[in-house]
């Protein structure tokens, strides 16, 4: 069995997740892709595994972790990338929408990290990286209110996790991009050609997963334009 490091990446069938997978593969990693609908277009490879993962189903997370360990025998990095967009203000949002957005954007990364945790601790220098959003650092508009609530919670999870890693060699980081050229940006009617590209976020992930435990980084904001509040 190869001794190349292994990363699990949620929401990896397109956009940022797919770019992270491609970038890590090119850098010699093995990757386990967690997707609601696993991609079918990738060529067969011993270095990647495609598994079903639904952020609303905690059991699918445990099954994904188990499949990854059974296939690769180790886990070095968990990339929490799956997320959903809301454009509801905090006065418009229903209780059901609140529950769904918080479940996917905040609850799911916490539960998946718990499931992967023993294996990350066993790694030489495990990493947990959450793709959070600049909306976890500021509220940009009324229409981003509910989404920002979920992303502030996702950011708080990463910082809470950092306090839990003191006796281990695991390090946790929140990456906070602004708009990225993905389907989510398209839904928000943003011109994808002018904003941060998925492969640029992936390059930051690659850098973070190779850092030693002595160089822990809490938060990495990434933006395509200057904001005076970030």
TrEMBL record:
SUPFAM superfamilies the UniProt entry points to: NAD(P)-binding Rossmann-fold domains
SMART domains hit by this protein: PKS_KR
Keyword set, alphabetical order: Oxidoreductase
Superkingdom, natural source: Bacteria
Keyword field contains Cytoplasm: no
Keyword Oxidoreductase annotated: yes
All copies of domain Ketoreductase, residue ranges: 5-198
Family under the similarity heading: Belongs to the short-chain dehydrogenases/reductases (SDR) family.
The protein, known as: SDR family NAD(P)-dependent oxidoreductase
């Amino acid at each position: 069995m190869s001794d190349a490091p292994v990363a699990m990446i949620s929401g990896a069938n397109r956009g940022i997740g797919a770019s992270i997978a491609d970038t890590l593969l090119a850098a010699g990693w093995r990757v386990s892709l967690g997707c609601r609908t696993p991609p079918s277009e990738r060529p067969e490879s011993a270095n990647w595994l495609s598994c079903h993962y639904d952020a609303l189903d905690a059991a699918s997370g445990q099954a994904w972790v188990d499949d990854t360990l059974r296939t690769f025998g180790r886990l070095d990095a968990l990339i929490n990338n799956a997320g959903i967009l809301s454009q509801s203000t905090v006065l418009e949002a229903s209780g059901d929408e609140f529950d769904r957005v918080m479940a996917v954007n905040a609850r799911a990364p916490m539960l998946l990290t718990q499931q992967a945790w023993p294996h990350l601790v066993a790694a030489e220098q495990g990493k947990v990286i959450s793709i959070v959003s600049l909306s976890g650092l500021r509220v940009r508009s009324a229409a981003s209110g509910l989404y920002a609530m979920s992303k502030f919670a996702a950011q708080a999870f990463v910082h809470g996790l950092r306090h839990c890693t003191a006796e281990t060699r695991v390090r946790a980081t929140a990456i906070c991009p602004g708009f990225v050229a993905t389907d989510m940006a398209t839904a928000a009617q943003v011109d994808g050609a002018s904003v941060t590209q998925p492969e640029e976020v992936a390059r930051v992930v690659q850098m973070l997963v190779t850092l030693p435990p002595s160089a822990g980084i809490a938060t990495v904001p990434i933006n395509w334009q200057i904001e005076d509040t970030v």
